[in-house]
Amino acid sequence: MADNPTPMRPETGSLDDLAQRIKTYHAAVLDAARNVVGKAISAGLLLKEAKGKVPYGEWLSWLDEHCDLSERTAHRYMQLATNKSKIDDALRGKSATMATLSLNKALRLIETRPENGDGAASKYAKTQEALIKRLQDLLPEDVEEAARRTIQELQATVTKIKPSSVVVNQS
What we know:
Helices cover 67% and strands 0% of the residues. By secondary structure, it is mainly α. The termini are far apart.
């Protein structure tokens, strides 16, 4: 079946013909979505090999010129390839499989796994969990005020870290 980026205009045909064509396109949709993570891991392994062969300092320009994917996508594919065993471990005993997993779900699995406790996402998740636990320990009448103060302090911190992200109302 040839790739067709735009939907075909329905042609007149028998119901049997239409049913067969519907099945063909549906199978193509399922096939396109199948094993996205496995394909990304394969690409990541190749990217890692290529990065090892590209002269120092030329990786991003080589990637841009030869691979038709962004630096961020390449990084994600390599991250998935590096952490394939963690993904396998996380899926062990669960109904999800590598073939049905989305890229974002796979990335979340490796970012928040206890074995990967050094990552920024893991540290943030632990801090957030501790904060929520502390809020739950407060008296019900104190929770709302504590949460409001925490939100204000978080917003002030974001402003200090990334001042361009905050729009000041000058009225």
